[in-house]
Design goal:
A five-stranded mixed sheet has the order 3-2-1-4-7, covered by helices on one side. A five-stranded parallel sheet has the order 9-8-10-14-15, with helices on both faces. The N terminus and C terminus are likely disordered. β14, α22 and β15 form a beta-alpha-beta unit. It folds into four domains: 152 residues; 64 residues, no CATH class; 132 residues, Nucleotidyltransferase, domain 5 (2-Layer Sandwich); 150 residues, 3-Layer(aba) Sandwich (Rossmann fold), CATH 3.40.50. The chain has 23 helices and 15 strands. The longest helix is centred in the first third of the chain and has 27 residues. By secondary structure, it is an alpha/beta fold. It comes from Hyaloscypha hepaticicola. InterPro entries: CHAT_dom (IPR024983). This is CHAT domain-containing protein.
């Protein structure tokens, strides 16, 4: 079996042979040889239950079919897409298992999934763009973002599933029964001998197929990354809001594509005139705090205006633009770029989200209590090292006649007590990010963490266990997002999922805007 797996790794050589100039006969021979070997490996992996390796086998075959298409075999494109879908289905099964199980095997699979996911979805987008199937390309982009969100949150088992998601599971007896049965089978599979796991996994697959027919389990599948938001759900998601344009970007090799879609409409794709390499170079040279404060900062941003250029034709003034950039673009102030000679933020209101699936989750559970200023909580300078944070919190408290919790009062216990009955929550302090353990990201609060105490920082792992009713969460984190290993992006995603209202994260110079 190990020889079979080793052979799988070596078969990539056949793919590279297809990428060099060969005569038609030699190329066809190499293709047939590659696919024959892959089929043997695939059969062996399927019988032996090596699911991660089997997914990789399908992905390698997709690359080979892509090269076959480029060598003049048009029917190969559809075969490549079929192999990609098989890869994704296997990985989704692994992801679902990872939300329940936690052991060395699962962690190994997790690392491999995270490392390989970008290649899978970029190839899916690329192949559909070749076919000019923009709807499918958009779907692949959304699925990629949904999976990336789950990968960011880590796989921590049943206990890390947000309480709001568990609550929706428990709304019906059918949903709860199927969910409990799935957990039971997964634990049984985890403890079983390898030869006993195959029939158990067939039972798990059957249970999951039944679960897809229970509407109350939709949010569970969203959380797991198995379900993603489809274009057909956008009208329901935005309700009475009609003047909305959802805007996404995707990287395909060195090209950047923009996808736009209106609720009730179809996705449209636009290839941009700026490249991935050019954007990466701009970020490396310009995206520093000291540079962005200079008078020439706006002038430098003009080099990135092509990133929003298509909006001049596909959107109208004052329409709501929903941005959900990722990768390189997530660090850019896209709303500050110019469209039709005007700053985009002057032309249109702009909303940012990490993905449409996360935004959908927030809108489903949004609160109408945002106008209730009597239920407002203000946290300021919990680390006692930012006098400006303390002053701004006091100033904001005076504006709304609210006594802020500052310094020693801004504790984890106070946060938990207030978050359950606050409709508006304002935090001015430090955010932190742990690249090794993403659920360890969170907010700096007052006090030193001691075993058995409620002191210390508040992590995303703890946030997911809270049933928050916050309708509007605002955070000013100074420049912690611009320092190595510190990022508000992770905190934004975790807080959005735990507190599905409106989450807004401001930089150091946003206090004036906030006032």
């Amino acid at each position: 079996m190990q020889n079979r797996i080793a052979q799988l790794q070596l078969l990539a050589v056949y793919q590279s042979r297809l990428s060099i100039e060969l005569d038609v006969g030699s190329a066809q021979e190499a293709l047939n040889e590659s696919l024959s070997n892959f089929q043997q490996v695939q059969d062996a992996l399927l019988k032996s239950g090596f699911r991660l390796q089997l997914a990789k086998c399908h992905l390698q075959q997709a690359w080979i079919w892509q090269n076959a298409y480029e060598l003049g075999q048009p029917e190969a494109l559809q075969y490549a897409l079929e192999e990609l879908k098989a890869t994704e289905d296997i990985r989704n099964g692994l992801r679902a298992d990872m939300t329940i199980q936690k052991d060395e095997e699962v962690l190994t699979h997790k690392r491999a999934l995270v490392a390989q996911s970008a290649d899978l979805y970029e190839l899916g987008i690329k192949l559909n763009l070749i076919q000019k199937n923009y709807g499918q390309a958009w779907d692949w982009a959304q699925r990629g973002k949904a999976r990336a969100f789950l990968d960011l949150l880590d796989f921590e088992g049943h206990g890390a599933i947000p309480v709001a998601v568990i609550a929706s599971v428990n709304e019906t007896s059918d949903g709860k029964e199927l969910f409990d049965e799935e957990i039971k089978l997964l634990q049984e599979c985890h403890n079983a001998l390898p030869e006993r796991r195959f029939p158990i996994r067939r039972e798990i697959s059957a249970i999951r197929h039944r679960m897809t027919s229970v509407p109350e389990l939709y949010n569970l599948f969203l959380y797991r990354g198995v379900e993603t938001l489809t274009a057909q759900r956008l009208p329901e998601m935005f309700g009475s809001l009609k003047k909305v344009v959802c805007v996404d970007w995707a990287f395909v090799d060195n090209s950047i594509w923009m996808f736009t879609i209106r609720p009730g409409g179809h996705p449209v794709a636009h290839e941009l005139t700026v490249t991935k390499a050019e954007v990466a170079s701009w970020i490396e040279s310009n995206l520093r705090a000291e540079y962005m404060r200079q008078k020439r900062a706006n002038e430098r941003l003009r080099e990135l205006d092509p990133l929003v250029a298509p909006l001049a034709k596909v959107s109208e003034e004052d329409e709501l633009l929903v941005f959900y950039p990722s990768g390189l673009l997530s660090s850019l102030p896209l709303h500050a770029l110019k469209c039709e000679g005007r700053m985009l933020i002057d032309r249109n209101p702009v909303v940012y989200s990490s993905s449409l699936s996360v935004l959908h989750h927030c809108l489903l559970r949004r609160s109408d209590e945002v106008e209730d200023f009597d239920k407002m909580t203000i946290f300021g300078n919990p680390s006692c090292d930012r006098t400006e944070a303390e002053e701004s919190s006091k100033s904001l408290g005076k504006c709304f006649n609210v006594e802020p919790l500052i310094r020693e009062s801004a504790t984890k216990t106070a946060f938990k007590n207030r978050s359950g009955n606050s409709s508006i929550f304002h935090y001015h302090g430090h955010a932190f990010f742990d690249p090794v353990d993403p659920l360890n990201l969170g907010l700096k609060l007052h006090g030193t963490a001691l075993e058995g105490s409620e002191n210390g920082d508040l992590t995303a792992r703890e946030l997911l266990t809270l049933n928050l009713v916050i309708a509007l969460f605002m955070m000013i984190a100074c420049e912690s997002a611009q320092q190595k290993n510190q990022s508000w992006r992770g905190a934004q995603r975790a807080t959005s999922h735990a507190a599905p209202g409106r989450c807004e994260f401001y930089d150091r110079y946003s206090l004036e805007m906030l006032r």
